[in-house]
């Protein structure tokens, strides 16, 4: 590997969840350590880069922020494949972002608005198998408006078999922790396992590239 | 009647009669009156003498007879004696009678004297009575003066006093009382003067109390006139050019007679003043009175002026009270001047007016700082305008007040600017920076009616729901701008004589608002990390620029004076225009930084042992990302800007990619490494080709040729000028050799 690289590993993450749950805010908090209360919805796709250190290694995180709005679904779904870790974000002050079936108990069919289960099944459908996931309940600073309890969040995470964390982009609670823990899990899953398989050090990247290449080839353009 | 001239003959006759009396009885009848007469005439003696004479005559006769008739004689003598005795008795009786008569006459005289005496007393009494009567009349009149005084008939009292002094008192000058009353006259006059002054003071006090109400009624009346003028102007638009208090307005409104001082709400009776003036005139104290009155009014004026006013009370009562007070006071002054020209001088009245205006202006100015709401200020201005118009109709000079309105206007403009600046701040900070979704035709009409915008499709052809290019901040700001303009002109409603100031201030304020608020706030938001927001800002700037273009002629047309004419140029127009470039640059910057980020994840192995079959992951991500943003976040931009972005992005990408093998840290490059790069460049070129824009391809020329050179079997071709120009014309003269070296 040439010396131009200023990192040891590249990890691609993806943020998904309903519009307004705070995906962009979490990302801005993590990448710029800033927060703006005004809601500027994401159009299409966006990404941020932040390099962190894990176990003495420089890990470059390329974090893709998707638009929660339905109309950008085709654009955003294309990014599931390349993702090594996915953050499923809901808003603890918005029941529908968590569980829309409770909101429409008599509708018979599934609600129009996606909820965490819908997002989860999208992930299952489009993302690479075995991709790391984490359930994130954002806006935990806003206790007065909370409608989804920590317990329910934890319960759902257990049901889906993924880690869970409540965060606040606004008050900077657990945001670092969430990204770090997901990155650490990925590192453990991909990099550390490939090491045990005696692959060369850069194998991580190879495997990551393989990940993307195999899917991208068919998908792109 | 017996003659007094010859009592003797009479007596003689009487005696004859007595003596010749045929009988004794007869004798006495003759005798007694004779005696009576004699004694009455003081001729008793004479009678006696006659009688004696007679007797002597008879004696002699008798003697003779006797001589002859002695006997007879003797008897006669005897008889005679007897007669004599009788005579004597008679005489004494006569004497007694005389005596008694005398005594009764004395009594009579006495009585007569008493009568004369009593007559004199009676005259005295009569005279005294008359004098008393005269004095009583004077006293009655004197009392009447006081009665009239207590009945408040001061002038009658004074007239009565004058009458008393000049007529009645003159009639009794001899009496002490006259002197006393005379002495009391000045005191009484003073009393009258005081009483009338007390009356006047009561009147003045009442006037002071009614002043506010009078002002209120006067304001109301002016307002009615305003309404009528408006109604007339509606019916006859020509009339709208004539302001309140113009000759035309006054003539048109003539039918509406209204006496401000005497109507069903207020009645101001000047009688006490007239009386007072009259009386002081009569007293010869007119100058003093005039001076006193002037002082009193001055004091009242002082009392009228509060030490401070507030402009922010709910109903504006504080200001209204002040102005109504001044109006009422000044109307009374003007009315007084008209009714009693000798009392109030124009100078006095104007002086008070000026002083009150000055104070009012100072009071209002001092309170101005507390006003933070333009509507409140507008309402207060309305009251002041009403005041000005009312007072102008009373011929008071209002120039100072009119110029004060300018100061109010300045403040108004400042408040409006602040308010709208806050509004814009709010709008800009709460905007979603998304093209505005419209669900229905009604909604579309509503929006399009307030904005400056030329739709590219006719209204009928639009399918809903649709999306308008700008975000909702644009219509919101347009509404605000329109409101701002309207509210500016609200100030000139009713009464404001500086239309040009409004025009100028409006233009400057709007310009400052658009440049200083809207534009500045938008530019500040260009630091945003959200590409979508920046794109929307650029689109909004474009629309604001259009709005400015449309506003300029609108402002010119709205100018109140045609004479000013000319076009209006807003600095904001240029500001929006030039800041579109700033926004554009920021978009380039952000897109380029993303490209840098992605190229920063390129992982070429320049000395790879094997040949890479697929394009790099970063290259695929880059092209997909570019394509995605072009089709989503940048989609709404005008085509030429989109092309520019692509152009800039690709040229930046090419430069960055080229810098990868050039990096000093890259020592050696093997054919596998070059092949990988070539594959990526090829991939990029194919991507650009799909964009179907030949100009974009040119951006990749240097990169392509450089990679070609790196792949070339014969590197000498580069050093041959002819082939180099043909094949590697775009390759940098410095970079070429460096890469060939590697
Ligand atoms: N109180 C609170 N508000 C938050 C928090 N995070 C985000 N918000 C607010 O939630 C709104 C939505 O945030 P975004 O991050 O733009 O939402 P998003 O998930 O990116 O939405 P899309 O881009 O439309 O998919 C914004 O108004 C934020 O200010 C938080 O931790 N606490
Ligand atoms: Mg977002």
UniProtKB/TrEMBL annotation, chain A:
Keyword Disulfide bond included in the entry's annotation: no
NCBIfam families registered for this protein in UniProt: small_GTP (TIGR00231)
Localisation per UniProt entry: Cell membrane
GO-annotated cellular components: plasma membrane
GO biological process annotation, one example: protein transport
Family label: Belongs to the small GTPase superfamily. Rab family.
Name of the gene: SEC4
InterPro entries: P-loop_NTPase (IPR027417), Small_GTP-bd (IPR005225), Small_GTPase (IPR001806), Small_GTPase_Rab (IPR050305)
Function: Protein transport. Probably involved in vesicular traffic.
Protein name, as recorded: GTP-binding protein
Superkingdom, natural source: Eukaryota
Source organism of the structure: Alectoria fallacina
Alphabetical UniProt keywords: Cell membrane, GTP-binding, Lipoprotein, Membrane, Nucleotide-binding, Prenylation, Protein transport, Transport
Annotated membrane topology: Lipid-anchor
GO molecular function annotation: GTP binding; GTPase activity
Automatic annotation (TrEMBL), chain B:
InterPro entries (alphabetical): EXOC6/Sec15 (IPR007225), EXOC6/Sec15_C (IPR046361), EXOC6/Sec15_C_dom1 (IPR042045), EXOC6_Sec15_N (IPR048359), EXOC6PINT-1/Sec15/Tip20_C_dom2 (IPR042044)
Domain Exocyst complex subunit EXOC6/Sec15 C-terminal: 401-742
Domain Exocyst complex component EXOC6/Sec15 N-terminal: 51-219
Keywords assigned: Coiled coil, Exocytosis, Transport
Record Gene3D superfamilies: Dsl1p vesicle tethering complex, Tip20p subunit, domain D (1.20.58.670), Exocyst complex subunit Sec15 C-terminal domain, N-terminal subdomain (1.10.357.30)
Keyword Coiled coil: yes
GO biological process: Golgi to plasma membrane transport; intracellular protein transport; vesicle tethering involved in exocytosis
Gene Ontology terms: cellular component: exocyst; membrane
UniProt entry tagged with the keyword Coiled coil: yes
Function summary: Component of the exocyst complex involved in the docking of exocytic vesicles with fusion sites on the plasma membrane.
Similarity comment: Belongs to the SEC15 family.
Protein name: Exocyst complex component SEC15
Origin organism lineage: Eukaryota, Fungi, Dikarya, Ascomycota, Pezizomycotina
């Amino acid at each position: 590997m040439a010396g131009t690289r200023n990192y040891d590993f590249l990890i691609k993450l993806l943020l998904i969840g309903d519009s307004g749950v705070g995906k962009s805010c979490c990302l801005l908090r993590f990448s710029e350590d800033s927060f703006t209360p005004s809601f500027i919805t994401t159009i299409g796709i966006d990404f941020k880069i932040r390099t962190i250190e894990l176990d003495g290694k420089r890990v470059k995180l390329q974090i893709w922020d998707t638009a929660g709005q339905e109309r950008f679904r085709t654009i955003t779904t294309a990014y599931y494949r390349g993702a090594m870790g996915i953050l499923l974000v809901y808003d603890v002050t918005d029941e529908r972002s968590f569980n829309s079936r409770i909101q429409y108990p008599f509708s018979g069919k599934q609600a129009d608005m996606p909820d965490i289960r819908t997002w989860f099944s999208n992930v299952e459908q489009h993302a690479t198998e075995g991709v790391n996931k984490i359930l994130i309940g954002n806006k935990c600073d806003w206790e007065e408006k909370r409608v989804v309890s920590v317990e329910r969040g934890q319960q759902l995470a257990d049901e889906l078999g993924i880690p869970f964390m409540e965060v606040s982009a606004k008050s900077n609670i657990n945001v670092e922790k969430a990204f770090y823990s997901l990155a650490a899990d990925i590192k453990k899953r991909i990099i550390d396992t490939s090491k045990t398989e005696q692959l060369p050090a850069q194998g991580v990247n190879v495997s990551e590239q393989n990940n993307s290449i195999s899917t991208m080839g068919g998908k792109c353009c | 009647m017996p003659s007094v001239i010859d009592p003797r003959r009479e007596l003689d006759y009487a005696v004859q009669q007595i003596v010749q009396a045929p009988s004794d009885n007869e004798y006495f009848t003759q005798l007694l009156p004779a005696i009576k007469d004699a004694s009455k005439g003081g001729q008793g003696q004479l009678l006696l003498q006659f009688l004696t004479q007679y007797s002597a005559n008879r004696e002699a006769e008798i003697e003779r007879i006797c001589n002859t008739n002695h006997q007879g004689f003797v008897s006669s003598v005897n008889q005679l004696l007897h007669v004599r005795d009788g005579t004597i008795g008679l005489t004494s009786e006569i004497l007694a009678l005389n005596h008694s008569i005398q005594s009764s006459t004395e009594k009579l005289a006495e009585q007569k004297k008493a009568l004369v005496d009593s007559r004199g007393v009676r005259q005295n009494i009569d005279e005294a009575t008359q004098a008393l009567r005269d004095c009583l009349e004077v006293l009655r009149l004197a009392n009447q003066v006081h009665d009239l005084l207590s009945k408040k008939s001061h002038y009658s009292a004074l007239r009565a006093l004058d009458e008393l002094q000049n007529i009645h008192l003159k009639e009794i000058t001899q009496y002490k009382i006259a002197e006393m009353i005379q002495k009391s006259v000045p005191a009484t006059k003073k009393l009258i003067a005081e009483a009338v002054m007390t009356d006047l003071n009561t009147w003045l006090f009442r006037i002071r109390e009614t002043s506010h109400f009078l002002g209120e009624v006067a304001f109301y009346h002016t307002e009615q006139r305003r309404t009528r003028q408006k109604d007339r102007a509606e019916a006859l638009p020509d009339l709208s050019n004539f302001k309140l208090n113009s000759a035309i307005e006054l003539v048109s409104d003539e039918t509406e007679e209204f006496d401000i001082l005497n109507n069903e709400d207020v009645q101001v009776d000047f009688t006490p003043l007239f009386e007072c003036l009259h009386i002081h005139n009569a007293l010869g104290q007119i100058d003093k009175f005039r001076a006193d009155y002037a002082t009193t009014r001055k004091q009242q004026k002082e009392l009228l002026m509060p030490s401070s006013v507030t402009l922010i009370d709910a109903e504006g009562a504080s200001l209204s009270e002040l102005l109504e007070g001044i109006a009422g006071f000044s109307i009374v002054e003007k009315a007084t001047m008209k009714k009693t020209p000798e009392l109030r001088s124009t100078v006095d009245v104007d002086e008070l007016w000026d002083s009150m205006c000055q104070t009012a202006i100072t009071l209002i100015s001092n309170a101005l700082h507390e006003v933070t709401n333009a509507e409140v200020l507008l309402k207060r201005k309305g009251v002041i305008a009403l005041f000005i118009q009312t007072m102008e109709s009373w011929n008071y000079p209002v120039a100072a007040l009119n110029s004060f309105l300018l100061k109010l206007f300045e403040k108004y403009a400042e408040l409006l600017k602040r308010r709208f600046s806050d509004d814009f701040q709010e709008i800009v900070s709460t905007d979603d920076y998304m093209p505005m979704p419209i669900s229905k035709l009604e909604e579309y009409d509503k929006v399009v009616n307030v904005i400056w915008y030329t739709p590219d499709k006719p209204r009928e052809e639009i399918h809903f729901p649709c999306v308008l290019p700008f975000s909702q901040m644009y219509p919101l700001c347009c509404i605000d701008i329109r409101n701002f303009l309207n509210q500016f002109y609200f100030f000139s409603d009713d009464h404001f004589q500086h239309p040009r100031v409004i025009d100028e201030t409006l233009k400057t304020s709007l310009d400052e608002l658009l440049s200083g608020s809207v534009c500045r706030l938008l530019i500040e938001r260009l630091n945003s990390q959200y590409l979508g927001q920046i794109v929307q800002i650029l689109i909004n700037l474009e629309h604001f620029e259009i709005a400015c273009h449309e506003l300029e002629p609108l402002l010119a047309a709205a100018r109140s004076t045609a004479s000013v004419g000319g076009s209006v140029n807003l600095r904001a127009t240029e500001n929006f225009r030039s800041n579109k470039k700033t926004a554009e640059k920021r978009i380039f910057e952000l897109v380029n930084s993303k490209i840098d980020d992605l190229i920063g994840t390129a992982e070429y192995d320049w000395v790879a042992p094997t040949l890479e079959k697929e394009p790099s992951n970063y290259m695929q991500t880059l092209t997909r990302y570019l394509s995605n943003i072009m089709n989503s976040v940048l989609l709404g931009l005008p085509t030429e800007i989109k092309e520019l972005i692509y152009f800039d992005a690709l040229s930046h990408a090419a430069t960055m990619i080229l810098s990868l093998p050039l990096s000093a840290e890259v020592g050696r490059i093997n054919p596998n490494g070059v092949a990988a790069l070539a594959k990526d460049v090829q991939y990029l070129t194919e991507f650009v080709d799909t964009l179907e824009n030949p100009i974009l391809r040119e951006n990749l020329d240097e990169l392509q040729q450089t990679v070609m050179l790196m792949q070339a079997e014969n590197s000498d071709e580069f050093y041959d000028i002819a082939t180099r120009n043909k094949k590697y014309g775009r390759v940098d003269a410095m970079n070429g050799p460096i890469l060939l070296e590697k």
